[in-house]
Amino acid sequence: MDPGFASGKTAFTPRTATGQTRGTMRKTLRLGGLLAAAWLAGCGTTSTITNLSPRSQPRNAEGLYPVEIEFRSDMQALKRETLKPYLQVGDNNYPMRRTHRMEHRWETLLPVPANTNVVNYRVKVDFEYNAIPVARSNSVLSAPYQLQVREKQ
């Protein structure tokens, strides 16, 4: 008697009706499940925040400096009416409003004290997207930006 046969192992591998081995079939199902989960979760989408403001502005009497961004996302499930961008400066948040006649642009005025020459800030965009069974919340945070306020010459 063959020693491999006595241990319960056979010289051939049983195949499924599709011609694949059970191990290959399990791997295929796992991969398919992971791809489906990634697709449902919205993985593979990109959302970008682009700062359209100059890095340096001359000091003005009001101490308010315009900041404008562009937010774009290819997320199909994004609920555009829920977009809420704002500037984060330390612990302070400054809400942004949609730029008139521009679909993807947002703006606000950034207050800078008279004794400050440099302000570091980030832009955060909160939003909701359609998911099963209910909509979910998410956000995108920009890279750090810096505004330099220079004295008039």
Write the layout of secondary structure elements.
Layout lengths: L2 H4 L15 H20 L5 E5 L4 E3 L5 E10 L4 E12 L2 E4 L1 E2 L6 E7 L6 E12 L6 E6 L3 E6 L3
Parallel strand pairs: 2-10
Antiparallel strand pairs: 1-3, 3-7, 4-5, 4-8, 6-7, 8-9, 8-10
Question: Which descriptors would you attach to this protein?
Answer:
about 150 residues; alpha+beta; Immunoglobulin-like; 4-stranded antiparallel beta sheet; 2 helices
3D architecture notes:
It contains two helices and ten strands. Helix content is 16%, strand content 44%. It folds into two domains: 32 residues, no CATH class; 104 residues, Immunoglobulin-like. Strands 2, 4, 5, 8, 9 and 10 form a six-stranded mixed beta sheet that branches. With 153 residues, the protein is of the alpha+beta class. It is elongated, with a radius of gyration of 27 Å.
Task: Write a brief structural summary.
This protein is of the alpha+beta class and 153 residues long. Helix content is 16%, strand content 44%.
CATH architecture of the largest domain: Sandwich
CATH superfamily of the largest domain: Immunoglobulins
Strand content: 35-45%
List low-pLDDT spans: none
Quick one: overall form? elongated
Structural class: alpha+beta
How many discrete domains?
2
Written as H for each helix and E for each strand, in order along the chain, the element string is HHEEEEEEEEEE
> How many helical elements?
2
Q: Approximately how much helix is present in the residues?
A: 10-25%
**N- and C-termini, Cα separation:** 100 Å
> Major sheet, described briefly?
6 strands, mixed
What is the CATH class name of the largest domain?
Mainly Beta
The count of β-strands is: 10
- Might you state the CATH topology name of the largest domain? Immunoglobulin-like
Mean pLDDT: 85
Please give the radius of gyration in angstroms: 27 Å
